[in-house]
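From the methods appendix. Each design record in this collection lists the tokenized structure first, followed by the designed amino acid sequence. Records were kept in a plain field format so they could be parsed without special tools. The example shown here is representative of the layout used throughout.

RECORD:
FOLD TOKENS (58 positions):
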């Protein structure tokens, strides 16, 4: 998912360089949304792993 966010970010940068402001804005918005979804899923994953984690073996 982070790869998709980076892809849309690159598309936004390239579109901005060539002057396509509408496409650049849309791609940047999509990249931002996907990035925040990634961060939320990462946080949920870390919390779930901490809750059901096993004790280390001695």
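DESIGN:
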């Amino acid at each position: 998912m982070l790869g998709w966010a980076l892809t849309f970010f690159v598309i936004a940068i390239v579109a901005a360089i060539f002057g396509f402001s509408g496409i650049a804005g849309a791609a940047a918005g999509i990249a931002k949304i996907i990035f925040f979804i990634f961060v939320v899923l990462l946080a949920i994953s870390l919390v779930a792993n901490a809750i059901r984690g096993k004790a280390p073996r001695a």
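APPENDIX NOTE: Residues 2-51 form one domain.
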